[in-house]
UniProtKB/TrEMBL annotation:
It comes from the Bacteria. PANTHER family: GLUCAN 1,3-BETA-GLUCOSIDASE (PTHR16631), GLUCAN ENDO-1,3-BETA-GLUCOSIDASE BTGC (PTHR16631:SF17). SUPFAM superfamilies: (Trans)glycosidases. Signal peptide: none annotated. This is Endo-1,3-beta-glucanase btgC. Its main location: membrane. Glucanases play a role in cell expansion during growth, in cell-cell fusion during mating, and in spore release during sporulation. This enzyme may be involved in beta-glucan degradation. Active on laminarin and lichenan. It is found in: Cell membrane; Secreted, Cell wall. One of its GO terms (molecular function) is hydrolase activity. The chain crosses the membrane at residues 315-334, 350-371, 383-402, 447-465, 477-496, 508-526, 532-549. It comes from Tistrella arctica. Keywords: Carbohydrate metabolism, Cell membrane, Cell wall, Cell wall biogenesis/degradation, Glycoprotein, Hydrolase, Membrane, Polysaccharide degradation, Secreted, Signal, Transmembrane, Transmembrane helix. Coiled coil: none annotated.
């Protein structure tokens, strides 16, 4: 059996295993069905792409709202709004035509003049389309944001009630209702927000129903005889894990499909957050903020309300793409010459090829997942530029390391050592780092590793100091972290190596920032956040490679 044939067989076997793993992790999950595949009500905002409510000059086109309302009619008969401006007055017109109801919101902030404009606009909508309006919500989480005092908020609620006969309420997180119980005297029903993912102590999807049951019971006890509505509840389909609370499509579907019968059994009305994914929220809340919708930003329903749910409905494209990329990596690594004594070393050949193609399959899957993540995270040209740059860094690292480790099967020679980050960044002479000799390759590889090290350090510092809305960029840095750590630890054959006595200062500082940050993140995120622990392992792997590689020069090197 030739070396190439062994390699082909190993690739086909690992490709089959990779496909099986993709299939297994995306097996359909059975969940409770939503009766009639309809939810009671859902929050609606019309903004698409780069549209944002923060652009005061933007007005949503009526045709855009009409299209959205027609889509929502298939899953609900009610929408909750947060304002009546920027074209949102069209919603009640469309709702009336479709036989739907509107919870008309009034956005209350810190500016009295703007608050009055909001009140006037909302009440004008109520007067013009009374049959479509179910209730009026005066303010959303105003107390949470500390933009109004409870006393001033009471005055605003009273002023609205004096101008309409529709039921009036105020909406806020459940804790703020319990801290300001006197507000219940001013409203016709109490509207509370319960978001297990965003709790100060996050709640897992497994424990979310018990959490909701406890909070609903506590709120009902605090406001006896007062109707209770869950004004916002839901679960994100993408984003970072918070403690035990892990986003995901199956988790989102599970939460919604388990919550609806719970709400009915406890006799409370509800509104889900939200109808459509909102890209503009990623600016304020990171990836997770833009992925709470029943329908994605391209107006496709993300999961069915009946029947099984798959985490990645189009996983087979990612699987096929990953296998294809793995094949390209193997080709770019360079051909291995057949070992003339292959019959005597079949076991070694099988082991070598299996390790090589397994690494290629892992790299291929990681690069495809990184592409998928880019579409979820990035919000504009600047972020896309950096995101694509980091993806290219990962892809080039995979190719470089594949070629670096590849060689003639019979030689088993360790590649030339990588230069330290500082020496690579200095690039003493263009001819030297653009050349084809070992010194030029060492400089280029040092530059590549240095760019990855600086990028990982920046990401680690961000997650250590300001983690709330930052993702763990695991797929982005898995290849550089694992690849350079393996390269640093790779056993040497054919020549001796002696350790250096000192670690270069730039390597030491980077290793300290990355390794220390990894430990800090893992501790801060807590024992239940598995995603944080994976990220910490990536950081420690990178720190290991940074600390060891410069100290393992060839024998006689200073």
């Amino acid at each position: 059996m030739s070396s190439r044939l062994i390699g082909l067989v190993a690739f086909l076997v690992t490709a089959a295993i990779a496909w099986g793993l993709w299939s297994w992790t995306n097996a359909p999950v059975a969940l409770p069905d939503v009766p009639n595949a309809h939810v009671a009500c859902t929050s609606y905002a019309p903004f698409r792409g780069r549209q944002t409510p923060h652009n005061v000059d933007f007005v949503a086109p009526p045709a855009q709202i009409a299209e959205d309302m027609a889509i929502l009619k298939s899953v609900t008969d009610c929408v909750r709004l947060y304002s009546a401006r920027q074209g949102l007055e069209e919603v009640s017109i469309q709702a009336a035509q479709l036989g739907m109801k509107v919870l008309q919101g009034i956005w209350i902030g810190a500016d009295p003049a703007n608050n009055q404009l909001e009140i006037d606009a909302a009440l004008d909508v109520v007067d013009r389309n009374p049959d479509a309006i179910r209730a009026v919500i005066v303010g959303n989480e105003v107390l949470l944001r500390r933009e109004q005092s409870p006393e001033r908020l009471r005055e605003l609620i009273r002023s609205v009630k004096a101008r309409t006969d529709k039921p009036v309420t105020y909406a806020d997180v459940w804790e703020f209702w319990l801290q300001n119980r006197e507000l219940a005297d001013e409203v016709d029903f109490v509207t509370v927000h319960i978001l297990p993912y965003w709790e100060d102590e996050p709640v897992s999807v497994d424990d979310s129903m018990a959490h909701l049951r406890r909070i609903i019971a506590e709120v009902k006890e605090a406001f006896p005889g007062k109707p209770i509505m869950i004004g916002e509840t839901g679960w994100p389909s993408e984003g970072r894990t918070r403690g035990p609370a892990s986003p995901g499509l199956v988790n989102q579907a599970r939460f919604i499909r388990e919550f609806i019968p719970l709400a009915r059994s406890m006799g409370v009305d509800y509104n889900l957050i939200e109808a459509f994914d909102q890209p503009w929220k990623r600016v304020q809340e990171g990836t997770v903020g833009g992925h709470w919708g029943l329908v994605d930003e391209f107006r496709d329903q993300k999961f069915p309300l009946t029947g099984p749910v798959v985490e990645m409905p189009h996983w087979y494209w990612l699987a096929a793409g990953g296998i294809f990329v793995a094949a390209m990596l193997m080709l770019m690594a360079g051909r291995r010459r057949p070992d003339r004594s292959i019959e005597e070393h079949v076991g070694r050949e099988i082991l070598g090829w299996t390790a090589a193609v397994s690494a290629a399959q892992l790299a291929g899957a990681t690069l495809l997942l990184s592409v998928d993540h880019l579409s979820l995270v990035n919000r504009g040209p600047v972020e896309w530029t950096f995101g694509i740059g980091l993806w290219l860094l990962s892809a080039v690292t995979a190719v470089v390391l594949a070629r670096r480790w590849a060689g003639r099967a019979e030689m088993r020679i360790q590649p030339a050592p990588v230069h330290t980050v500082l020496s690579a960044l200095r690039m003493p002479h263009k001819a030297r780092w653009l050349g084809t000799d070992d010194e030029a390759r060492a400089l280029r590889h040092g530059l590549l590793r240095g760019l990855a090290a600086v990028s990982v350090a920046i990401a680690m510092i961000g997650l250590a100091l300001d983690p709330r809305y930052r993702d763990f960029p695991i797929a982005t840095f898995l290849i550089p972290a694992l690849g350079w750590a393996v390269d640093a630890l790779m056993p040497v054959a054919g020549r001796a190596r002696t350790p250096r006595l000192t670690l270069p200062v730039e390597e030491a500082l980077l290793a300290l920032m990355v390794g220390g940050g990894a430990v800090a993140v893992a501790v801060a995120e807590g024992a239940e956040n598995g995603e944080a622990h994976v990220w910490a392992v990536i950081g420690l792997l990178f720190a290991t490679g940074l600390a060891i590689a410069p100290r393992r020069g060839p024998a006689g090197e200073d």
